[in-house]
Design a protein that fits this description.
Elements: H1 5-18, H2 24-48, H3 64-77, H4 79-114, H5 119-145, H6 152-158, H7 162-166, H8 175-195, H9 199-206, H10 210-223, H11 225-250, H12 254-283
Helix pairs in contact: 1-12, 2-4, 2-12, 4-5, 4-9, 4-12, 5-8, 5-9, 5-10, 6-8, 9-10, 11-12
Length: 301
């Protein structure tokens, strides 16, 4: 049964309120990535701040010029190891995020269909879809990175940037072309982000492989352009308002700053997941529950 856009928002919001535990995958993802970042910077720091004698140099004992010089020299002296560490942690972070995001979508699917969801749903959907979700994210990332072709003409026109580095105020031939290329790449990335918004939901809900999920996400967008765009605007708008409040009020209060930082993790991302999931399910003609049909409390946290 198809629902109109207002019904999707109304019932999606009520489904989220009834299942606040959908925030748990996002909270776990935050803390797991926090631990990952600690290890990442620790390993990268050892590579960069280790002197030629093998001793670790304390950055606090260095001037700003010495620190900058050591960062550049340390990175250049350990390019293969540094690149391997950066790439390895980036892919590991994407893989762990794939588990939690697939789990969150699975929880939203269960909540939209039955009214309730529990933590075991996160584990079940996450473990079943992690690898395919990870590969789909890689493909989407590569599709967005393909937009670098817009930057190539400007980069070729400019050529050697050494003069600009020595004198930032100098006029460089072709800089306008490069700026236009970067702008075009940004627009392309934004469009791809909207067009492929439903790719992860198609993958988890319909258990598709990565390529089929991308095709399904694209075809879903073509058939439901306005609904996809409006939900995207709502999601981005809420995030923008939260960020603006953080900027305006956070400077005066550490508490407000902390709250606005965690609002996306605890509220906005889970709510967006429920709305996207309900949009996909209802437009695909799936049977969904009505909040008015369930008067009891949720089955469990």
């Amino acid at each position: 049964m198809h629902e109109d856009f207002g019904t999707i928002l109304n019932r999606g919001f009520k489904t989220w309120v009834r299942n606040l535990n959908i925030c748990i995958p996002y909270v776990l993802n935050f803390f797991v990535n926090l631990i990952l970042y600690v290890f990442f910077f620790a390993i990268l720091g050892v590579l960069i701040f280790t002197s030629g004698s093998g001793n670790v140099v304390d950055p606090a004992t260095l001037s700003s010029e010495e620190l900058y010089s050591m960062l550049v020299d340390g990175f250049m002296a350990n390019i293969p190891a540094s690149v391997a560490v950066i790439l390895g942690f980036f892919l590991l972070g994407m893989f762990l995020q794939a588990f939690f995001m697939a789990g969150a979508i699975g929880m939203a699917k269960k909540a939209s269909e039955t009214g309730d969801t529990v933590i075991p749903d996160m584990i079940r959907f996450g473990s079943k879809n992690t690898v395919r979700f990870f590969l789909a994210n890689l493909l989407v990332t590569l599709i967005i990175l393909a937009g670098i072709v817009f930057v190539v003409p400007g980069a070729l026109t400019i050529g050697d940037l050494s003069g600009l580095i020595e004198n930032p105020a100098a006029t460089v031939q072709g800089m306008g072309t490069l700026v236009l290329g970067i702008l075009a790449w940004g627009i392309y990335a934004l469009v791809m982000n909207i067009v492929l918004s439903l790719t992860p939901y198609a993958l988890v809900i319909d258990e598709l492989d990565p390529l089929d999920a991308i095709k399904k996400g694209y075809s879903f967008f073509k058939e439901n352009k306005l609904d996809v765009f409006f939900i995207w605007i709502i999601v981005v708008g809420l995030a923008f308002i939260n960020g603006l409040l953080g900027e305006l009020l956070g400077s005066e209060s550490a508490l407000v700053s902390g709250l606005t930082y965690f609002v996306p993790i605890i509220i906005l991302q889970p709510l967006a997941t429920v709305l996207w999931t309900r949009l996909y399910l209802t437009m695909e003609g799936r049977e969904l529950y009505s909040p008015y049909e369930l008067l009891s409390d949720p089955d469990g946290f």
